Amino acid sequence: xxxxxxxxxxxxxxxxxxxxxxxxxxxxxxxxxxxxxxxxxxxxxxxxxxxxxxxxxxxxxxxxxxxxxxxxxxxxxxxxxxxxxxxxxxxxxxxxxxxxxxxxxxxxxxxxxxxxxxxxxxxxxxxxxxxxxxxxxxxxxxxxxxxxxxxxxxxxxx
Length: 158
Ligand code: FES
Ligand code: FES
Prior knowledge:
The chain has 158 residues and is α+β, with helices and mostly antiparallel strands. 30% of the residues lie in helices and 16% in strands. The longest helix has 13 residues, at 106-118.
């Protein structure tokens, strides 16, 4: 067996300890060790944004960081967005504005845009476009995604 290390992450509000090899990405840790498969593996190389999660308040590409580097971190994944039986305003806006088709990019889009909004960034449509450019959508829903984010920013869905 490969050598493993204990890593404790607070994931969606719950402390979880996993034993992972030092080269295992945060994305694989979430998906394979914690059964949180909402974060998607599109490219595994930092190029698509499908794996975006919120780590200590900032959006990160979970395929590009190792679990051992995040020991002690607070992670929010798409599973932790919204409350039981109640969608987050951004999730509602994604539905209202038709901001997904296959849905593969959606968890990353939502985590990315929530962290962007909470950081107070993306105050114009151009800025939102720019700041969301790391989250690709192969289905071409980008315009609707920006519409949904702008609706939340403008308070239409709060
Ligand atoms: Fe991480 Fe594509 S899977 S950026
Ligand atoms: Fe299919 Fe974005 S909805 S990749």
